[in-house]
Design a protein that fits this description.
This protein is mainly beta. It has one domain: OPCA outer membrane adhesin/invasin (Lipocalin). It has a 10-stranded antiparallel beta barrel.
Amino acid sequence: MKSILTSLLVVAVSTLAHAGAPAAKNPKAPVAPAPAPGCDPLSYSYAELGWLHTDSDFGTSDGGYLDLSYDVGHNLFLDGTFSLTGGDYDYREVGAGVGYYLPITEKFHFVGRTGWANTDTDLTSDVNEWYISPGFRLQVTCNLELYTKAYFHVPEEGDENWSVGVGALYHVCKAAAITVGGAWGEDDEWSIQTGIRFNL
């Protein structure tokens, strides 16, 4: 009787020990590939610094610009800009506003901005104006982004005017991107710019 009980006890302990041990891996079993990492989402918090060239009936002017944007949540962001150029004429612009982005898809956003701007040249006195700027952003690949936007300017005095612009960003790393862009407006005015953008 004791030998039977002893044998049953040994079998039970052995069964419990094997039940708690991890199952042996089959080296021939297929291994599921790791999921591919997704692209970083479009960022609305950045600082962009670069070179700006303008061309108008008054001649050409070259200088620099600084654009700032900060995402405050709920698809809202604050933005500001400062431009300063010189040449055949001197030009300065400072502006600040608020924007809203609507993700049509994860990689395609409608973007709207509105705000105030002040421009000054050595040809005319400074001008205060409100602006409205609708546009789109498209993430083509994880590194390449395209954008387009329009500007409608409503000055305190004088006629309203408009311009349209297109551009591209190429992300050299997660924190920085090289940017290029151009804009065309009324009276054959146009500008080009290139810079570097740092995500904040």
